[in-house]
Amino acid sequence: MSSLIHAVSVLVIACPCALGLATPAAIMVGLGKAVNAGVWFKDAAAMEETAHVDTVVLDKTGTLTKGELEISALWQPQSAVYSEDDLYRFAAAVERQANHPIAKAIVQAAEQKMLEIPTALFSKMEVGQGIQAELEQVGTIKVGKPDYCGLILPKNLEDIWQIASIVAVSINDKPIGAFALTDTLKNDSLHAIQRLQQQNIDVVIMSGDQQSVVDYIAKQLGINKAFGGLSPRDKAEQIQKLKAQGHIVAMVGDGINDAPALATANVSFAMKSGSDIAEQTASATLMQHSVNQLVDALFYCNSNLEKYQTKSLFCFDLQYSRHTPCSFRFS
């Protein structure tokens, strides 16, 4: 035992290069390559953890899709008191207080119709549900998920309502209508998913959108695991379950409602075009808003880790062969 202690002591003293120079050099090279690929890691620990990822969880809107939604259909009850223009005006007034692709789409649609958008007061965001505000001489306007607004849509609506993001509007908790918004996949999303699957990485979609919409996107991308109707807390709990099963999980998202999941994952990535909260919470930022950059990051991190381990092992082996006989001689 005494001889072994002496041998290890000689190695540590004789080859500080492997630890003092090779390690930070490898880390700096890896961080530099990641930046060139458009991935900005906050620290070396996140880069090292990325090399061990075996499961990637993806948000839908703005991550896999372009986040450039359009209103494809509109519904109002037969006994509607307010006009279609009123529905646009009221919804836009409240959504101007939010910074989400759906909110932007509704505001833009109202502006394109050249409607006068009233000023909303006392806005309050319910993360994962919707937003509400007060309109003078109108009442409390809620805009968000159907259940948040107390809306149950008829079952005989067009097919578009089955694959669209549905946004309901209510006044004083009485539903006055709903919008069906559609989005399109980013051009490189399918390629990115295929690259992940080729590396034997499990891919999961977790979204707050209705299950039928999430299933539709998952089918287009060849993803077998897709969960819809999740609140921010639900997403975080699902990721915690994956971690408890022994998986190393990477989360990719762009919205405020993704922040709890981003914080829960082993390592997380935010889209540069997303919310400030998501970017501040994540371990790294994808500067070009593409999931393909995540795949590149996985490649660089794995390559960097292998090179570091190889060089460190070589340095230790070299010093071991040179100095260990001496350590045993003097033991």
UniProtKB/TrEMBL annotation:
<dbReference type="GO" id="GO:0005524">
    <property type="term" value="F:ATP binding"/>
</dbReference>
<dbReference type="GO" id="GO:0043682">
    <property type="term" value="F:P-type divalent copper transporter activity"/>
</dbReference>
<dbReference type="GO" id="GO:0055070">
    <property type="term" value="P:copper ion homeostasis"/>
</dbReference>
<dbReference type="InterPro" id="IPR001757">
    <property type="entry name" value="P_typ_ATPase"/>
</dbReference>
<keyword id="KW-1133">Transmembrane helix</keyword>
<dbReference type="InterPro" id="IPR023299">
    <property type="entry name" value="ATPase_P-typ_cyto_dom_N"/>
</dbReference>
<keyword id="KW-1278">Translocase</keyword>
<dbReference type="InterPro" id="IPR036412">
    <property type="entry name" value="HAD-like_sf"/>
</dbReference>
<dbReference type="InterPro" id="IPR018303">
    <property type="entry name" value="ATPase_P-typ_P_site"/>
</dbReference>
<keyword id="KW-0472">Membrane</keyword>
<dbReference type="Pfam" id="PF00702">
    <property type="entry name" value="Hydrolase"/>
</dbReference>
<dbReference type="GO" id="GO:0016887">
    <property type="term" value="F:ATP hydrolysis activity"/>
</dbReference>
<keyword id="KW-0812">Transmembrane</keyword>
<dbReference type="GO" id="GO:0016020">
    <property type="term" value="C:membrane"/>
</dbReference>
<dbReference type="InterPro" id="IPR023214">
    <property type="entry name" value="HAD_sf"/>
</dbReference>
<dbReference type="GO" id="GO:0005507">
    <property type="term" value="F:copper ion binding"/>
</dbReference>
<protein>
    <submittedName>
        <fullName>Probable cation-transporting ATPase</fullName>
    </submittedName>
</protein>
